[in-house]
Amino acid sequence: MGKIDLHIHTTASDGRFSPSEIVQQAQSNGMEIIAITDHDALEGIWEALQAAEAYPWLTIIPGVEINTDVPNGEVHILGYFIDYLNKELQDVLRKLRSSRVERAKKMVDKLKRLNVNIDMERVQQIAGNGTIGRPHIAEAILEKKYISNFKEAFTRYIGRGGPAYVEREKITPVEAVKLVIRAGGLPVFGHPLTCENPEAMSSELKPAGLAGMEVYYNGYTEKDINTLLKIAKKYDLIPTGGSDYHGIDANSETMMGNVTVPAEDVQRFILAARNSKR
Q1: Do 176 and 184 contact (CB within 8 A), yes or no?
Q2: For the chain, how many structural domains are there in total?
Q3: Is 135 in the same domain as 185?
Q4: Alpha helix (H) ranges present in the chain?
Q5: How far apart are CA 169 and CA 103, in angstroms?
Q6: Hey, how many other C-beta atoms are within 10 angstroms of the C-beta on 160?
């Protein structure tokens, strides 16, 4: 099996490259399977599927990444093999995207009070037609040279707990898992180590229908992976993985295809998707 990446963002949310450009990169990089998993957005999927028709060896998995709320942080639920035309899914995501705009305005206001003067209009220009997210704000801060690299925007200003951080409207992890299932997809616990207690969360989400856990992820050490593999085995979750590629900063992010997901786990994941459609 060739190279696999199950976590990629496009301009439909907060990635730098359009879905067509992502597909072009994927075929140039020798990818066999990629998943388009934009934040709270489905608009990039159709374009990616159309672009991939020129490369029959490349499989595009329709996906989404849904940001959800928990008391001490947030949990990201990845949905794979979804029906991206599902009306309920589209309606919920549209509401979540709307809340992102108001959140961005509040963050820009907070930044100005910290003497970091960026304009909301510029943030919207950077986002283009995509869903506004913190990476767009980070780019605007970097553009004005208030920081020396993209990551610094999060560590100094807009990361959780930072002086310009603002909460936004979210749904619960259980609601997101059930929403993905109703849209015909397989729900996966995204980058679980950002969660305070990934095992407790897995225990809560499994009865709701959680199918997998993102075990292989950018920056995860062998110890991290082994810890997550034990949790995945305990709750019968399929290990998945991906780069979380945004294409924004080559110096600080993992490139597409540079996270290895064992072939047997990918095959198990695809089989589970086929069985769920029967």
Answers
A1: no
A2: 2
A3: no
A4: 19-28, 43-52, 87-113, 120-127, 134-143, 150-153, 173-182, 198-205, 222-234, 263-276
A5: 9
A6: 12
User: 11 with 59, same domain?
Assistant: yes
Residue 163 lies in a domain: no
pLDDT digits (tens), the chain, 278 positions? 679 999 999 999 889 999 999 999 999 999 999 999 999 999 999 999 999 999 999 999 999 999 897 877 789 999 999 999 999 999 999 988 888 888 899 999 999 999 999 999 999 999 887 778 888 999 999 999 999 898 899 999 998 889 999 887 778 999 999 999 999 999 999 999 999 899 999 999 999 999 999 999 988 999 999 999 999 999 999 999 999 999 987 777 889 989 999 999 999 999 999 988 76
β-bridge mates for residue 76, sequence order? 67, 190
pTM across the whole model: 0.83
Structure tokens at 223: 């110890």
Are 182 and 51 in the same domain?
A: yes
DSSP secondary structure, 100-151, as one string: HHHHHHHHHHHHHHTT----HHHHHHHHTTSPP-HHHHHHHHHHTTSSSSHH
Q: Which domain holds residue 223?
A: 3-93+168-276
Whether 108 and 48 map to the same domain: the answer is no
Structure tokens at 174: 């259980």
172 and 253 inside one domain: yes
CATH number at 68 reads 3.20.20.140
Domain final residue, candidates 118, 136, 158: 158
